[in-house]
Amino acid sequence: MPKVTYELPDGASHALDVPSGQSVMDGSVRNNLPGIVAECGGSCSCATCHVFVEEGASCFDEPTDEERDLLEYAEGVRPNSRLSCQLILTEDCQGVRVTVPDTNG
């Protein structure tokens, strides 16, 4: 099972096992971690699940045009910005680390 480390806005770090087939957003929401609001529930329509992918980016598909468009409206976007609802985990996704910005929601 892939392990995802979430670096939260308050400085806390949580390493969680998230089943393959679920998204980085799902792992956060199902474990009640603060910071990933996920207002749209993962339908790629709100950008409140914005994260910075610090490690493990190569295991994810490239962002879609829709995701890129939404990121244009997110605060604090960086080259490693992604929407966590679009980061679907596979068994190859070992050691993924994301930082949750203090700007979601």
From TrEMBL:
It comes from the Bacteria. This is (2Fe-2S)-binding protein. Its cofactor is [2Fe-2S] cluster. GO terms for biological process: P450-containing electron transport chain. Gene3D superfamilies: 3.10.20.30. Residues 2-104 form the 2Fe-2S ferredoxin-type domain. It comes from Amycolatopsis acidiphila. InterPro entries: 2Fe-2S_ferredoxin-like_sf (IPR036010), 2Fe-2S_ferredoxin-type (IPR001041), Adrenodoxin-like (IPR001055), Adrenodoxin_Fe-S_BS (IPR018298), Beta-grasp_dom_sf (IPR012675). Belongs to the adrenodoxin/putidaredoxin family. It holds the Pfam family Fer2. The keyword Iron-sulfur applies. GO terms for molecular function: 2 iron, 2 sulfur cluster binding; electron transfer activity; metal ion binding. Keywords: 2Fe-2S, Iron, Iron-sulfur, Metal-binding. The lineage of its organism: Bacteria, Bacillati, Actinomycetota, Actinomycetes, Pseudonocardiales.
